[in-house]
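JOB MANIFEST
job_type = single_chain_structure
chain_count = 1
residues = 341
[input]
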Amino acid sequence: MKRAQAKSALTPRSRIGWIAFALLVACCRPSLALNPSLDISQYAHTSWTIRDGILRGMVLSMAQTPDGYLWLGTEFGLLRFDGVRPVEWSPPGAEHLPSRTIRKLLAGRDGTLWIGTSAGLASWNGSRLTRYPELKTQVASLLEDGEGTVWAGGLHAAAGQLCAIRGGKAQCWGQDRSLGAGVLSLYEDSLGAIWAGADSALWRWKPGPPKRYAMPEREIRELIQDDDGELLIGMPNGVRRLENGKALPHPMLGKVNVRHVIRDRHRALWFATAGRGLIHVHQGRTDTFSRLEGLSADEVLRIFEDREGNVWVSTYQGLDRFREFSRSEEHTSELQSLRHL
């Protein structure tokens, strides 16, 4: 990979930290997707914290573009990690992002990086930065649907927005305040329906005319389908399941304060919680991983699965990575265990 140019020199301490980071990344490639039969504690785990000087602030979003770069959206700028060290990225020339606070990132299938900031939306196609004047508020959600349309949810106290962008043109809704203060979450289900978790309610936006579903809470942080195809709705006071148009408490996760959720390539669910670390639902069972087990913090922000099958987790205090042990590492662990017999 080509290295990006850093804006400022790294301190000796941070340079050493990133050399260690690079060696750790390099030693595990090519990596294997996580074995779905294992609990989180059985994966190889590495943690980098803000106090180590490696990260300047919290990682609010993550994405990986087709060229292999891992992008980190932080409180203080956009970072691009090239396999050696992360560097602050900014567009060339006189162009600039709407804000240095990067709230949401999305890697499009065509290689475009969509950058949602606290003051608007931009996209970078590798040579040109495009800004979208139709959405100048904080970007709270991003989604690319199966047809290649990019959806963006914006937050604003006066009136939130939902915008659909295709062919460089944006169409937006919400000026009538029907979405309340904005759209926090977006999801495309297995049938191609677009769901929007708005401040006002849950909406099935398409197909057909938008349909509104009343919710017990206004903050709909996450949307995803469960194994039965029903929609799971993550909110501060717990996870609910949409059944016959009604939001019913989830039998297992009904009181969990969820911030984010992903389904990995083996269909396991990973929940980022506020105060309880990670919750991992896989093959009919559930396990957890918190600060007591080595997580950088119990306040988890985002989860991301990269192309190699590693799962990255950002918290209030740092960044964690979970990966499959290599065969050589497993062999070393077995030898160490035998020595202790």
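[summary]
Residues 122 and 143 are 14 Å apart (CA to CA).
The first strand starts at residue 44 and ends at 49.
exit_status = 0
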